[in-house]
Amino acid sequence: MFHEDPINLRTKVEEYRIDAQGRPIEPGGEDVRNPNSLGFANAWLLFLASDKSRSKFRYLGRQQIDEHGTFVVAFAQNSSLVQVPAEVRIQGNRMPVFLQGIAWIEESTFRIVRLRTDLLEPIASIGLQQLTSQLQFEDTHVSGVASPLRLPREVDIRTKIKGQIVSEVHRYSNYRRYMASSRIVPEIP
User: Fold this and answer.
1) Its pTM surpasses 0.85
2) Is 140 contained in some domain?
3) Which of 131, 169, 130 has the alpha carbon at shortest distance from 152?
4) Cα–Cα distance for residue pair 15/40, rounded to 1 Å
5) Is there a domain that residue 68 lies in?
6) Alpha-carbon gap, residue 75 to 47, rounded angstroms
């Protein structure tokens, strides 16, 4: 979901799922068909220019991905500098997660084509040994947005926690733009 904040005049991307009847689908929960993971629509935020000092980057070379010539770049977050880390929620507990990975960046547009992320290090306190995501991006036209946005098309996630492996595949479609406005109304005594 794309949300425009009229006060700060900025746009943010929020991710949520709905079923065929338009009802929200919450991650995890009792229905085994529900996803366990979300937040991948924001994965490109790892590469914001304003945050580049919070990670180390290394150029690995060039590679052809589908019809895209790409620069291949490895990255690793510096856990002491990341202000808003990813998080894992397990049994009501929230744990910060720091990432490393590889990005394939289109040479002609500098847009991300593919992104792989992995844990920077396992989280022993909850038994999280692996959290790997592989994202495929594509240009996506969203009604009301002039230019196409490079958003996830598909994400493969592999988690290993306490020796148990869980795999998920998310396929994205029907991106929508929503606008909201608000105003502050003083309380009348």
Assistant:
1) no
2) yes
3) 169
4) 8
5) yes
6) 9
